[in-house]
Amino acid sequence: MAKELKELTSRKENYSQWYQDLVIKADLAENSAVRGCMVIKPYGYAIWEKMQRALDDMFKETGHVNAYFPLLIPKSFLSKEAAHVEGFAKECAVVTHYRLKNSTDGAGVIVDPAAKLEEELIIRPTSETIIWNTYRNWIQSYRDLPILVNQWANVMRWEMRTRLFLRTAEFLWQEGHTAHATRSEAEEETRRMLGVYTRFAEDFMALPVIQGVKTESERFAGAIDTYCIEAMMQDGKALQAGTSHFLGQNFGRAFDVTFIDKEGKSEYAWATSWGVSTRLIGALIMAHSDDNGLVLPPKLAPIQVVIVPIYKSMEQLKQISEKVDAIAARFKSLGITVKYDDADNRKPGWKFAEYELKGVPVRLAMGGRDLENNTVEIMRRDTLEKETLSCDGIEEHVRGLLEDMQRNIYKKAYDLRQSRIISVNDYEEFKSKLEEGFFIMSHWDGTAETEDRIKTETKATIRCIPLDSEAEEGRCILTGKPSSRRVLFAKAY
Amino acid sequence: MAKELKELTSRKENYSQWYQDLVIKADLAENSAVRGCMVIKPYGYAIWEKMQRALDDMFKETGHVNAYFPLLIPKSFLSKEAAHVEGFAKECAVVTHYRLKNSTDGAGVIVDPAAKLEEELIIRPTSETIIWNTYRNWIQSYRDLPILVNQWANVMRWEMRTRLFLRTAEFLWQEGHTAHATRSEAEEETRRMLGVYTRFAEDFMALPVIQGVKTESERFAGAIDTYCIEAMMQDGKALQAGTSHFLGQNFGRAFDVTFIDKEGKSEYAWATSWGVSTRLIGALIMAHSDDNGLVLPPKLAPIQVVIVPIYKSMEQLKQISEKVDAIAARFKSLGITVKYDDADNRKPGWKFAEYELKGVPVRLAMGGRDLENNTVEIMRRDTLEKETLSCDGIEEHVRGLLEDMQRNIYKKAYDLRQSRIISVNDYEEFKSKLEEGFFIMSHWDGTAETEDRIKTETKATIRCIPLDSEAEEGRCILTGKPSSRRVLFAKAY
Questions:
Q1: Domains detected in chain B
Q2: Which of B50, B51, B57, B94 is the mutation pick for testing A, counting most A CBs within 10 A?
C-alpha cells in the first residue's frame, strides 16, 4: 500500500498530531469521503474484533444475550422522553425520503419528491427509544423480567468536530438495555456492568480506570445516574472509557412499559443502559503508545509475535523457514498468534520498523548465526529490550513474556496516573496543575453553575465523583462554599 | 414473555402462514414499529451469531480480513456506475438533514430546515461504491493487490413487500469486496467464495444447494457475472442463499482505481463482491422445520441439548439436579451446549412442547424412576424418536447423535430436492410441474424476452445455469429455438 515509513511526530512536539499520525501510519483508520465518518482499516478492525470477543464473553458470563433492533427510529419516539430528545436532537441524521429517480433534465439521479416519508426517521444515536417501544410487548408480568439484552451496532451522532476513533459521526459500539422489576435490581445491574467495563479496561486494555458517577450536567440524557470509568492519557487528559446508566422508570413511563408485580400491582419497569464504543481504540492508542508507534497489550494485539528471517541466500532462507515453521507451530499450539514475514521485497530493517509501528508485542529475528547456534533474537515492544535465546522452549519463554508485558504496560500507565493525580485546595494551583496535565481532586460546592464556570475558565470538567472518594469536609475550590467530598477534575477528550 | 403455546398453522394448510407463525412463536423475530424493519430477538440472533462465527472462520481461512466502511454513501457515488444506480435507486433511504429542533409553535420536535445537507446521503444498500472510492487510495501497484476485505454490516433496501428474515428493509449481512491484479485471479476468487458459501450451506445449515450462474436479467447491478447457490424449500420454491459477483473492471473504472502492473503498465483493478445475509435464517427455517416447530441442524442450534427434570417433590428435584449437574458438566467438556430447565412455574409437558417449537436437537428428561435406574429418556428433534438409556456414557452417545442428526437433516432435504427436480421438454408439463412445486430443468433460447415471458406466464424464473449442467442440444421450452444446455427454472422467494 505504497507506505513510506516516515518519522512520527513525537508526543512531546505535538501530542495531538502524534495521535493522528499514528492512526494513519499504523493503518488503523482513515477519514472517509463522508464528513465525520471513518473507514476502520483491517488492522484497526482486528483490534476491535479482539475487544468485541472479550466483552461479548463477559456479557454472556453475566447472563446477557444479544439481539438486534432497527437502525431507524421514528422521530416521534425520540420526543417521548423529554431529557433524551433534548440531549440528542442537535446531532440527528434524518431520513426523509425512500427513493431516487432520474431527473427529467438529464442532470442525473435526484431524490424523488414523491417518495417523501410521512414521518421522518432518525438514524439511531442510541437505541433506548426503539428498544423500550419494543419491550412494551415483551413485558407483562414480573416473570418476564429481567430482560438482559445487548446489541452490537453502528450509531450516528452528527458531531461537528471529529477525530478518528475518539469522536466520529458514525461509530461502532455495544449498547446493553436491561429491564427489571425493582429499582434495586436495576441499580445493581448498572454497577455490575460498570464492574465489567472496569475489568475489561484493566485486564485486557491494561488501562487503569477510575470508577465514578457523573454530575447532573454530565449525565446521559434521560438517566437518573450515569456511572463511568475515566482513564488518563499520556498527555494528562481524561478519556471516558465506558458508561453505565441507571435510567429509573423514565423510559418505562415514556413508553408505557408496565408489568404486574408479585403482589398483583401494575408497575413501570426499571431500566439500565450501558455502552462502550470504538472510542476505546483511541484510548488504547493514547494510553500506551510511544514515539516509535503503537504499543499494544498482548491480549488485544492482532498479531502477538512476528518472526523475521535475515538471510543472505535463498538456500539460507529455506533453512530458516524450516526452523521457523516448527517454532511457529509450537506458538500456535499455545494459542499465541504468530506471523512469519518472509516477504522478499522488504529489508529486515524496514520490517523491524513496521512492526514496531504496528505494536506487535514480540519480534523474533533469525539469521545465519542463529541457525548455527539454535538461537533467536527476541525483542519486546514495550521496553524495546533485546536478547538472544535458545530456540528450545522459546514458546514457553514468549508466553511468559507476553504475560509480563501485559502487566508491565498496565503498571506503566498506572504509575503515570498515580504520579499525576493530586489533591488541590487553591484555585490558582488548580489552574497551573491542570496545565501541567494533572488529574485534580478538589472540593466543589455541588452546583451546576460552579461546574460551568470552572469549565469556562479552565476547560476542566468534573470527570466524576469517584466511587472510592471518602467523605471529607472542605470548601469549594472556586466559591469557598462547603463541600463534603472531593471530585475529580481534568481536561478531557 | 406471556407466551401461549398455540398450535402452529400446518405446512399443508398454509405454508406461508406456517412460516410466519413459526418465526413469531419460536421467538426468532418480530416486525418493528418501523415499516419493513424487523427486531431480531435473542433466540433468532443466537442463530445468526453461530452462522457469523462459522462464516467468519471460513473467510479468514481463505485469507480475508474484516474492515468497516461508512453507513452513508454520497448520492453522487451511487451514480458513478450506471447499472449499479439503475438497480438500487428505487429502494434508497435518503438522509437529507442532520439536526432536529423545537418548533416555534410548540408542536414538538421538527427537522431543522437550516440543517440541510449540501449533498444527500444514502444509507448503503450495498457498499461497492464507498469501498471502491476508498480503494483508490489503497492501490497503486500490483504489490498492493490482492485486497481481500470483508465487512459485517447492516444495509437498507426500501422493499415494498417484506417478510421476516426473507425480505426486510434493513437486514444484516456480510459483504466481501476484493480487488485483484488480473481478471483470472478475480474470477477465481468469485468461484472460491461460491465454494465457501456452498460448504457453509451444506456442512452447517444442512442445506443442499445448486451452484450456478445467473442470467443477464438476474445479475447483480454492476456485475459481469453473478454466481449463486439455490436451495429448495419444503414447498418446492427456490431460495437464493448466497451470491458471488465477478465485477470485472466496472468499479475500478467508475472510481478510477488504477495500479501499475508488473510490466509497469497502468491498469484498472479487477473486482469481486459476495454476500450472505440474515435471509439465511429464513432458509434454515423453511428447509427443515415441521408442524411442531423448528428443526435446527445441531451445528447452528443455540442450545444443543436441553434437560428437563420430572419430579414429585423438592427433595426429588434436588436429587435429580445433582445428577444432571454432573451430566451437564460432561456435555460441556465435549463442547456441547446444554441447558438445564428446572424452572418450577412450568410443567414438563409445557417445556417439551416449548423446546420442540424452538428446535433444540436433543431433549433429555429425568424422573424418579430414571434416578433409581441411572437412566435418562432421550428424544431427538428431527425424528421425534425417544429411547431410554443409561446415564453412563450418555455424553458420547449424544455427541454421536448430534452428528447423525446433522447428516440426517441434510439427507432429508437432499432427498426431497432430488425427488422434486425434473427435466421437462413440454411447456404444458412445465406449467403443471411448476404448480406441483418442482425444480425444472428445461431448455431456453438464451434471450431475456423469453425469460421474461415465461416469468409473466408462470411466475417461474431462471434460478441459474447450474455449473454442473452438461452441454445438451435441445429446443427452448417456450419458443422451440435451439438451446445448448438446460437451465434451472423454479418459483422463488
A1: 15-93+122-288 (3.30.930.10), 308-401 (3.40.50.800), 421-490 (3.30.110.30)
A2: B94
Is the model's pTM score more than 0.90?
A: yes
DSSP letters, B414-439, are HHHHHHTEEE---HHHHHHHHHTT-E
B16: amino acid identity, one letter: S
Contact B72 A1 (CB under 8 A): no
B103 and chain A: CB distance < 8 Å anywhere? Answer: no
Give me the residues of A, 82-101, that contact B with CB < 8 A: 85, 89-101
Q: How far apart are CA A444 and CA A447, in angstroms?
A: 8
Cβ atoms of B34 and A70 within 8 Å: the answer is yes
Q: How far is CA B460 from the centre of its chain?
A: 21
Using CB atoms within 10 Å of the CB of residue A285, give its burial: 0 to 12 exposed, 13 to 18 middle, 19+ buried: buried
How do the pLDDT tens digits run along chain A, 493 residues long? 334 456 899 999 999 999 999 999 999 999 999 999 999 999 999 999 999 999 999 999 999 999 999 999 999 999 898 888 889 999 999 999 999 998 888 778 999 999 999 999 999 999 999 999 999 999 999 999 999 999 999 999 998 899 999 999 999 999 999 999 999 999 999 999 999 999 999 999 999 999 999 999 999 999 999 999 999 999 999 999 999 999 999 999 999 999 999 999 999 999 999 999 999 999 999 999 999 999 999 999 999 999 999 999 999 999 999 999 999 999 999 999 999 999 999 999 999 999 999 999 999 999 999 999 999 999 999 999 999 999 999 999 999 999 999 999 999 999 999 999 999 999 999 999 999 999 999 999 999 999 999 999 999 999 999 999 899 999 999 999 999 999 999 999 9
Identify from B72, B129, B147 which residue to disrupt to test chain A contact, counting A C-beta atoms within 10 A and taking the largest count. B72
- B78/A109 touch (CB, cutoff 8 Å), yes or no: yes
